[in-house]
Specification:
Elements (H helix, E strand, L loop, with lengths): L6 E10 L3 E5 L5 E19 L4 E4 L13 H9 L4 E5 L10 H12 L6 H7 L3 H4 L5 E5 L3 E4 L5 E7 L6 H6 L19 H5 L6 H7 L2 H11 L4 E4 L6 E5 L2 H11 L5 E7 L1
Parallel strand pairs: 4-5
Antiparallel strand pairs: 1-3, 2-3, 3-5, 3-6, 6-7, 8-10, 8-11, 9-10
Helix pairs in contact: 1-2
Length: 265
Amino acid sequence: MTRGSTDTAFAPAKVNLTLHVTGRRRDGYHLLDSLVAFADVVDVLTVERGDALTVCGPFAGGVPTDDRNLIRRALRLAGTPRAVMLEKNLPHPAGLGGGSSDAAAVLRLVGACPDPAALLSLGADVPVCMTPRAQRMRGIGEILSPVPIPPLHAVLINPGVALPTGRVFAGLATTDNRPMDALPDAGPTLDWLARQRNDLEPPARQIAPVIGDVLSALREAGADIARMSGSGATCFGLWPSRALADKAAHELTLSGWWVRACTLI
């Protein structure tokens, strides 16, 4: 963050390394068990005095600037109006929690820390995005615990298909799935991660078969693990080094998809 007439913060992409749907409450909210990490691929927010939201960047198109936007809703919740410039570098909707990460970043910028219930009113991913480091997320997004993980070197790919989250959840064969396996004491290993899953991946692939093409491309490029993030359609692959992830990203960019090498923390 820089201080002066304006304040600036980064809103990193949220990546669900795992996403187990373990139940559904009577009010319709799904119960999750997810290991979340954050990438060094970010939206950039700048705030100053005022009360307007402007958006620039490669994914500015289609981002609302009225009260439908989570940034404006978060500032209203905090009671601290600001003029915000959002540089939208993350695709949306994409399973990367971009809007939630933007909302959390602006709350951090203005020094606001609403209680968990208030944060959940903005969205299930907002609480975990308030502290952008590896965490286990349970319940409907309100039960959070830090998880030690080594830096993970990844390639993110979004094929440009928007998936409605509600439709993906509606396609679940069952909502009563087993939770994640017990985490190793020193944090997740690749072997442990490989045994976990994203329960939203099968219904998402039914809606958007291109997700299967993305996962196949990641595996063919040498990914140790390839999985969908969130409710899609972004997928990630993991490599043993950043150099190998960079090399794979360069090769995969020829696909015409949005492709970024990154490090997850």
